[in-house]
Design brief:
5 strands; 477 residues; Four Helix Bundle (Hemerythrin (Met), subunit A); mainly alpha
């Protein structure tokens, strides 16, 4: 076909365009789409550094430090059973893998879209050259011819070198045309681009046939030993067992594969149980140690966990990371509790002395809570009780004012003083209401009594929190 195209190209040098268009149209007619049915997806091979090979159904993806791909396990070529897997990126022989990918893509392109894309190229170039033959402006004609030439040069680079030799021959013919157009356009400078054409060299890699059921099972067992995710290993081994006949004849490859898959699955499940037991037992010991602020015992527990993981050959790094993180949290909690308790012990003597100084004042304030409640509810008490309430609250306030509290309880001590002052005001305002018979004044006394009760409860809760030994979960103050 290309031999028949030579004459029109040569005549183009003299006729400025018409014959080369006819030649390209003729070549386009030969380049018809492939009659073979398209295959479903390309089977790529992933080569590992240890020499083993895995199969990827379609494209694989690199995500962070992992390679994610779908691997055919069972089924048929037309309807395979796929399993999603991940590999460590560092385990892949990328030079061999990428070379195989390039060759597989080129083969796929040639078998499916190659002829159709080639036909489109020849039609596009023919159209461009036909336009060049219709243009009277030499500069415009040269521009179109050079554009056609660039298409012929660039297309193989972008299409896996498909029919590159034929396009190189066509480019050689077109170089003569471009040279003539340059002369016609009045340009005499030499263009290196008319000679330099980058060659398309595909990597050397031999495509392997589609794996049969036996090879798929073997590759799946290989993948199960390579994937770093235990959950994926368990899932893959179960998929292998599902793809093989449970009643395979003794001594057959299928029975052997089932035996290996079953043994590997049993080991994985046993390892899962071992780490689950380790986690449960460790946390059962760590929780009470943390509540006792026993930091040393917790750190010893970490060492025993690491030794147990070593005996299990570090089979579950993710589970170990989670367990060690939980232990770190328990140790941090124990350290905080230890600090809080030691700080409390350091100040315990001062706090006990403070309690002794305010004990009687606290008792007197607590003794009048019922009367304060009556004032708040506008339910009494009697005038005598009100005078007693005012006396007791005022005495407690004076006693509290003479006490110098430690820094830890200064805020609560101030609240107690305010509560006693409001109790005095509530009692005196209630007496004023009794004398005047004014409900408005009675409500003022009620508000003062409510405030006194609220502040008294708040101060008591704060003092209890501060003066008691810190409980688990307490942070140092």
């Amino acid at each position: 076909m290309l031999q028949r195209c030579c004459a029109p190209f040569r005549r183009l040098i003299r006729t400025a365009g018409r014959s080369i268009v006819l030649a390209l149209i003729a070549l386009s007619a030969v380049a018809s789409p492939c009659d073979a049915a398209e295959a479903d997806a390309v089977l790529y091979r992933i080569f590992l550094r240890d020499g083993s090979t895995l199969v990827s159904f379609g494209e694989f993806a690199q995500v962070a430090d992992r390679v994610v791909f779908s691997m055919p396990i069972g089924g048929t070529d037309a309807n395979p059973v796929l399993h999603l897997l991940t590999l460590a990126e560092k385990d892949v022989d990328w030079e061999r893998t990428n070379a195989y990918v390039e060759v597989a893509r080129a083969r796929r392109f040639a078998a499916t879209r190659g002829e159709e894309e080639f036909a489109k190229l020849t039609r596009d170039v023919a159209d461009t050259l036909y336009q060049a033959g219709q243009v009277n402006d030499p500069a415009k004609r040269l521009e179109l011819a050079e554009a056609a030439r660039r298409q012929l040069i660039e297309w193989p680079q972008q299409h896996y070198g498909y029919r590159a030799d034929e396009l190189a021959q066509m480019t050689t013919w077109l170089d003569q045309v471009v040279s003539e157009f340059r002369v016609a356009a009045g340009k005499s400078t030499f263009e290196l681009a008319l000679v330099a054409r980058p060659s398309v060299v595909l990597p050397k890699a031999q495509l392997l046939p589609s794996p049969d059921l036996r090879e798929r099972a073997e590759l799946a067992l290989t993948a199960a030993s390579r994937t770093p995710d235990p959950a994926e290993r368990v899932s893959l081994l179960r998929a292998v067992l599902d793809s093989l006949q449970p009643d395979a004849p003794e001594g057959s490859w299928m029975a052997s594969a089932r035996g290996r898959a079953s043994a590997d699955l049993a080991r994985e499940l046993q390892m899962d149980q071992a780490y689950a037991d380790l986690t449960r037992q460790t946390m059962a010991r760590a929780t009470p140690l943390s509540r006792r602020a026993d930091v040393r015992s917790l750190e010893s527990l970490v060492q025993s966990v690491l030794e147990r993981d070593k005996k299990l050959q570090h089979a579950r790094p993710a589970e170990m990371a989670g367990l060690l993180a939980a232990l770190d949290a328990q140790i941090d909690s124990a350290r905080r509790l230890r600090l809080a308790r030691d700080a409390w012990l350091l100040r315990a003597g001062l706090i006990r002395a403070y309690w002794g100084n305010i004990r009687e004042a606290m008792d007197r304030l607590l003794s009048v809570r019922l009367w304060l409640t009556d004032v708040r509810q506008l339910a009494g008490p009697s005038p005598g009780a009100l005078r007693k309430l005012a006396y007791e609250a005022e005495w407690a306030g004076n006693q509290l004012a003479r006490v110098q509290p430690p820094a830890e309880v200064a805020s609560a001590h101030s609240i107690l003083g305010t509560a006693s002052s409001m109790a005095v005001r509530a009692a005196k305002t209630r007496l004023d209401a009794l004398r005047s018979g004014s409900m408005e004044t009675a409500w003022e006394a009620s508000s003062a009594a409510a405030g006194s009760l609220m502040l008294l409860d708040q101060a008591i809760q704060e003092l209890r929190r501060i003066t008691r030994e810190p409980a688990p979960g307490a942070a140092p103050r």
